[in-house]
Structure formats: structure tokens, C-alpha cells
Amino acid sequence: MFSRFLLLLFYTFLLPLAAISQTDSLKNLLKQDIPDNTRIHVYDELLYSLSTSEPSQAIYYGNKGLELARKNKDKISEISLLNNLGISYYGLGDYEKTLDYFLQVLDIEKDLDNPTSLSRAMNNVGIIFDEIGRLDKSTEYYEKSLEIKRELKDTAGISNTMSNLGLLYLKREIPEKAIGYFRQCYNIDKRQNNTVGIYNSLHNIGIYHKDFGNDDSAVYYLEKALLAVPTGEQNYDKVYIIKSLAESYLNIDDLKNSERYFKIAIEAAKSIQALEVLKQAYKGLSNIYEQKNEFEKSLKAYKNFKLLNDSIYNQDFNNKVSQLESNFEIQSKEKEIQLLTNEAEITNLQLTRRENSNYFLAALGILLSVLAFISFNRYQIKNKAHKQLEIKNDEINQQRSEIKENRDEIAAQRDSILEQKQALEEVNAETLKSIWYAQHIQKAILPDINKIRSVFHEFFMLYLPKSIVSGDFYWFTERNNKIYFALADCTGHGIPGAFMTVMANDLLTSIVNQQGVEDCAEILYKLDQTVLNSLQYKENSSNDGLDIALLCFDLKNRNLSFSGASMDLLIYQDKGWHTFKGERFSIGGLKEPNQKQAVSLNIDLKEDTHIYIYTDGFVDQFGGEFDKKFMRMRLRSLLDEIKLLSFEKQKEKLEHAILEWKGNSEQTDDISITGIRI
């Protein structure tokens, strides 16, 4: 989702030090005798300039400056240092510390008469709550920030916070509020003639329509967003818009325009190193070529996607290692600070010892009568100081040893992780290559959809494997003026299920076309016996098998024969729905053969009859607001809503419904549903 968050708040000062740009010069300045207010500003400048390159040093100088600012009760400098420390921890991915510093800024701002800074601080707190998934708290702070900006009539700030709120309401699945804010942003940016704001707002509106299935509207707004980008400008926003437009064209099956825009996005993303957009564009291009049956091009595009995906993964991995090292540096720096504190205490003890010696010599000349007492007192002080020195030195040596051991341990862990990652990548690449080849084999055995569609008035096949290969399959053949069609769900999914689909497909073809069996119940009986013999159940104690719905059409006599094993048939005719249940057993499995009795049901076909069969992956998919199963009743209700649409539109509605229901949840099983209109 495209985001237009406000940049995290920076405070800047017009210092006499403006000409000092190099960090070395700033560090040298700290060695000089300068006023506290200037020293605080130098610490803040070092914190800001080192926050991305050397975060451990940046945080060290920031804490030094914060201590001095609080000592001098300099609230403005304290706010700046707290805010910039939060930004440094944000760059390290430590959102907990970032939030802590930003909330401290907010507490101080509430006591100051500066509503502009207060609204920005609230906006920043909202951003961090959004990052950590506290969307309710994020909404609260964004809306408080927006209220202040409206009172101040801060037009640019209003538009920015509204954009953040729109994106947040999309995450919270409250689309009506999201689109409301996006449209208000667009109107504000248009009045202000804010070019960047205009095309970003149009992009957000287009993404909203794309995510909620309004594909034609998505294309319209995304094209407007692209036209709003100034000619010749090449930036990340433009590349992202082009990629979104290509995806929207793909959603409406306009493969020509989708392919064209994906290719434009690829070239543009390469020029500005937009790796995430480049990755998604290659993935989209692979899907297009697959739909066009240009498998070589599809595989090439997918390989580019996979290479980029691995590269981004490696980059993220390296960033995490760098973050780990930075956090270690920060911890080490904190220990160094403690060491310096200990050394300072030692120095104070030494000074105390010298002062006591001086007092002793002075007292010796004045009060000879108390010489014995002073000598004894001096001995005690010296002995005590010596012991304290030994303790402090031992502590310093121990801390130095711990630092070295921690550094060596982290380096060893990093090397071990990198070796394991490389080995896993090699194994994964070989396994994935084999699975992709298995997918091409599985696709080759499935019947041609166009051939099936040619024998019926209308036909659709929604086929969504859970993995690269599927445990669901469909089968079709014609014999003696009859049309046979089956949909089956094999045990498991992925590679185990795919093996079963290949075997069951071949067995069905053999039973019908070679052995000449025509009765649906007899076909399922033969299939069950052959699967039992092939898999040797008694020896292996296996429960592998399949659920199946088998249909035989006699279109000349307008008759349908149905036999099912743990799969049902759903028919709509005479303006009513009728369910024909299959028998409650599976083909194969450990159930005794005498407990399995397939039955053929004969059904008269009338004009405009709709026939549906589906595997349990559709109705068992978890999702929705409460993470529940989709269920048969919800599917029946959905089919009733869309029954008057063309079958191509019905397929689109079913696919959109199950994907929207699934959301970010994992797909539970292979999903297949077939529709036939007579």
C-alpha cells in the first residue's frame, strides 16, 4: 500500500556553528571551553549527523546533550534531543525506545504554548503506534493531531494527516472512512495545486478500488494518477503507480495493457533501483505469460522475481545483522560510559587523598599536639582509598573482558547463521526447481478448458492450488455420445496430493475409455478397487485416497447421471436449489469394501439448469473478521446472489469472495469449484 507519512519531526537551530559541517570539527569543538548552550547544540548536531552512519556514537552524544539540557532546564533543546534520539532508535528498528522518547516529547510539548509542534509530536506518536500494530492508539493520536491542524488552518498538515488516517482505516478494514479521507486529501491538494499530493491522493484512491474489487474504477484513478506526474519525472512514486496500474489491468484480464505497463515498470524500477517494485512487476509478468501459455517466458520472469526476492531477503538479513552490531555497539558504548564514570570516581578518590595529605601537612605545623591522631587518620584514609582503587580496577577489567567475549560471540553467531542460510538456500533452490517441473507435468494431464467449454452452454473452472502443485484435479472425456466430467480432492495437498492426482486421472481414463465402463456408480467401484490394489493398504496401513463427484451427461436425452464419494452436487433449476448428496465414503482408504456402495442418481435436465460441484477447500477456508470457516451456507448464499450473472462473472465473484475472506491468513487447502450451464 502506498504511504505518505509525515517525515519524523526535526528541530533545527540557527547556530553560530552553522559553518561547521564535519563531525570531526564538532568533536574537536567539544574539547574546548565553550558555553553550555553551545555545547548542547553541538551534541544535538552530532546526534543528528551520526544517527544513520554511526547510531551508537549518535546515541552516546545525544544522551550527553540531554543530561546537560536538563541540568540547564533548556526545554527547547531537551525536546530536540529527545526527538532526535527517538529517530535514531527508529532507524535501528527499536520502536519501543522510539515511542518512549516521542511520548516524553509529547509530555513536554503539552506544557508549552506551541500548538504546531504539539500536533507534529502527536502525529509522530501515531506513526510509531501504527508501526507496532496498535491501530486504535494510532488513530487516537492522528485524530488529535488533525484537530489541532484544523484549528491552525495548516492545510499541508491537514492533508498529510488525513492521508495517514486513510491508510490506517484501510488496515482496520473500515473502507468507507478510508476513501472519505483520500478524497478530502485530493480536494485539498488540488486547491493548493500540490502536484505531488495530487498524484499520491489519486494513487491511494486507485489502490482502494483495486483492493476492494472495483477494478474498472481502479484503472480510471491510477491512469489519472500517472497523467498527473510531471513529464520526464522519474521517481519511486511514479514507478509504484505504473506497477499498480499494470496489476489493475491484469485483474480485468486486459493482458495486453497489463504486460505493457509491467514492462514499463520494470525499466523504470531498474533506473532508480526500486527493488520491491521490480520484484512485484516480474511476478505479475510471469502470471501473464502463464495465462498466455508462454511457459518459457513465464519461467524466466519468475526466476527474475525469485532472484530479487532472495536479494531483498539477503539485504533484510544483512540489515538485521547490522542492527544487531549497532545495538551491540550501543551496549558497549554504555559500558564504556560506565568505565569512564568509574575512572572519574578513581580520580576523585586520588584528589581526595592529595587534599587530605595537604590538610595533614598544614595541621602538622599548626597543631603538633594532635600529630598522632592525624597520622592515624591519614593511614586509614589511604588504606581505604587503595582498596577502593583495587575494586574499581577489577570492575574495569571484568567489564572489558565481557565486552570482548560478547563481540566474539556475536561474530561467531553471525558466521554460523550465514553458513546455515547458504546451505538452506541451495537445498531450497533444488527442491523448488523440481516442484516447478512437477507443476508443468500436472498441468499437462489436466484437460483443455476450452475443449470442455465447447460442449456446454457455459462453463467455468476456479482452480486455486494451496502450493505450486495441487491435490485437486478435474477430468473430462467423451464416449458413445456421452460426456463425462469429474472433480476430485485427493488426500493432502502439495507433492503428496499431486502424486495421487496423476494416478487417479490415469485410472479414470483407463476404466471409461479402455475398459468401456459407462455407469457412474460402477466407474467409482472400479476406481476404488484399483486404488486399493495399487497402494496395498493392508500392508502399508495407509489411509490415502480421494473424494470425487462424477457426472455423465446425455445431452441428447437431457439426462444427467451423478455418483459421488464424499462430494455433493448442487443444481439450480425451476427457480430453486437442489442438493444431491454423494455417499459417505472416500475412494481408497481403510474403510472395508463391503461398507462402500456407490449409487447412480439420474436427474432430468431442464432449460437453463446450473450445476455446481466443489472441493472442501472452498468451504473450509479460514478468514473473515473472526477467523472462521467460510462454510457451505455462505457459499450457497453467494451462489444465489450471483446466479443471474454470466458464468465468467460468477467465477470472478467467487474468486474475489474467497480471497477477500482469506485476507492475510494462510490458504487452508487446495480450492476448486466448477460451474456448468445446460
Q: Radius of gyration, Cα only, in angstroms?
A: 36 Å
CATH architecture call of one domain: 4-Layer Sandwich
CATH fold description of one domain: Phosphatase 2c, domain 1
**CATH class type of one domain:** Alpha Beta
Number of strands: 13
Percent helix range: 55-70%
Topology:
Layout: H1 23-30, H2 36-50, H3 55-71, H4 75-91, H5 95-110, H6 115-131, H7 135-152, H8 155-171, H9 175-191, H10 195-211, H11 215-228, H12 236-251, H13 255-272, H14 275-291, H15 295-366, H16 371-445, H17 449-455, E1 458-464, E2 472-479, E3 482-490, H18 494-514, H19 520-535, H20 537-540, E4 545-554, E5 559-565, E6 569-573, E7 576-580, E8 587-588, E9 601-604, E10 610-614, H21 616-619, E11 622-623, E12 628-629, H22 632-642, H23 647-662, E13 671-677
Properties at a glance:
disordered N terminus; six-stranded antiparallel beta sheet; five-stranded antiparallel beta sheet; 23 helices; 678 residues; elongated; alpha+beta; Phosphatase 2c, domain 1
Describe the structure.
- The chain is an alpha+beta fold and 678 residues long.
- Among the domains are: 321-441, no CATH class; 446-677, PPM-type phosphatase domain (Phosphatase 2c, domain 1, 4-Layer Sandwich).
- It is 66% helix and 11% strand.
- A hairpin with a 2-residue loop joins β6 and β7.
- α2 (36-50) runs parallel beside α4 (75-91).
- The longest helix has 75 residues, at 371-445.
- The model is unreliable at 1-20, 320-328 and 339-349 (pLDDT under 50).
- Residues 454-678 form the PPM-type phosphatase domain.
- One of its GO terms (cellular component) is cytoplasm.
